[in-house]
Amino acid sequence: MIENEKNTTIQAALEVARRMMTAARTAPKAKGMDRLELCCVSGEELETLAKKMEEIGLKNQRASFARDAGNIRQSQAVVLLGSRKGEQELNCGYCGFPTCAEKRKNPAIPCVFPVTDLGIALGSACSVAADSRADNRVMYTAGMAALELGWLKDCFYALSIPLSIAGKSPYFDRK
Q: What is the pTM of this model?
C-alpha cells in the first residue's frame, strides 16, 4: 500500500487533537476540582465556527474575528477548552472578597482558579501540539464563537487551539 501524506492530514490533526485533550484533562487543577469542558471540531463544523466568528466580528466591529475565521478555514481541526464557574472553597481572597461565600453574592466576578486551571490546561495541550510538530495558535475569538454556539455546555470562558498540518503555518505572517 502507498499512502500519500496529503490524504492523511485530517486524520493526523485529529490524532493530535485527541492527545491534546488528554493532556488538558490530566493537567493539574486547584484542589483537584475539574471544571473543564473539552471538545474537538473538524469537518463541516469548522465552517459553522468560522461563520459565527465573522458574525461576532461584524456585530462588535472587530476585524480580528474575520481574520481568525480565515485561519479556522485553513485548519484541519480545532480544540476547544472551556471552563465552568465555581469556587474552590479556599477562602483565599484573591477575587477581592474575603470568603467564597461573599464572592458568590457577586457571580459576575469569577473565581480565579477555574480560569487559571484553563490556562494550565491550555499550555499542556499546546505542548502536545508542539511536540507533534502541528502548527497551532491560541485564539480567544474561536472560543467566544464556540460559547455562542453552545458547544461548551455551562462554560463561561473558552479558548481555542486550531491545528494545521501544511507546508507553512497559516497562523503567522497574518495581515
A: 0.92
Helix (H, G, I), strand (E, B) or coil at 51: helix
pLDDT digits (tens, 9 = 90+) for 104-123: 898 888 899 999 999 999 99
Distance CA 151, CA 138 (A): 18
What DSSP designation does 139 have? B
147 alpha carbon, distance to own chain's centre: 10
Q: List, for residues 116-146, the tens digit of each pLDDT value.
A: 999 999 999 999 999 999 999 999 999 999 9
Do the strands 36-42 and 135-136 form a parallel or antiparallel pair, or are they unpaired?
unpaired
- How open is the CA angle 164-79-149, to the nearest 5 degrees? 115
**pLDDT for the residue 9:** 93
Torsion 11-13-19-21 (CA) sign: negative
CATH 3.40.109.10 given to domain 5-162:
yes
- CB 95, CB 171: distance < 8 Å: no
